[in-house]
Amino acid sequence: MRRRPSSVAALSLLACAGQVLAAPDSYRAVVIANAASWASLRIVNEYAALRGIPPRHVILLDRIPANERVPVETFRCDILQPVFSEIQRRGLEKTVDTILWGPDIPTVIDVSGDLQGRTLPDILSPYASLNSLTFFAQDVLAGKTCYLSLEANPYARKFLGLKPDSPWTDEERDRFARALAKMKKPSPGDPSSPAPSPSEALALLAAL
What is the pLDDT of residues 123-161, one digit of tens each? Predict the structure, then answer.
């Protein structure tokens, strides 16, 4: 069963000049161009031709701001919603699962407008990428910010947390001290000092 566009893959064509990027089946993707940018039109048209993407899968947007960074409301109303509306108007919603963005489309989205005064933790930023907000398109269109959660991406490796470490026993401390001694370099001019033995040190450490 095909995945609905509610959770779509998103790729940027900003680096595709001179090469053809790997992409899904041409009938499962739509390519978005900035109608006011000759560079965007040129690259998108070239990419579509090389990948065999049908003309009805190429969408032109004519209200894209010139700035690289835009507020989330602008992104929602002038970029994201028009794309999904056009996908539905063309009857592509049951087959398309990938949105390819051409150049000269804002790539940094300020989502602080949807936070409604809430303060984010220090580890989070109020800025999101074009591709990430496309993946969470339905949440963005609904004004939700659950995509800011560190658990939002089901494909990201999860943090398992820190395991509590119990204090070492006297035997473990002694084993560690002997491992350090096995790695110690002999003192210069002292022929009685034993040579380092990394293998023995590793064996002692492996048991800790």
Answer: 889 999 999 999 999 999 999 999 888 888 887 777 666
Strands, sheet with 9-12, edge to edge from the N-terminal-most edge strand:
9-12, 98-101, 29-34, 58-61
User: Distance (Å, rounded) from C-alpha 93 to C-alpha 90?
Assistant: 8
Q: Give residues with Cβ within 8 angstroms of 68, minimum separation 6.
A: 106, 107, 108
Which residue is listed with tokens 């108007």? Answer: 89
Q: Measured at the alpha carbon of residue 103, what is the angle toward residues 136 and 60, in degrees to the nearest 5?
A: 75
Interatomic CA distance for residues 12 and 99, integer angstroms: 9
Asked if 113 and 45 touch (Cβ cutoff 8 Å), the reply is: no
> pLDDT by residue (tens digit) across 59-70?
999 999 989 999
SS3 44: helix
| Predicted model pTM | 0.66
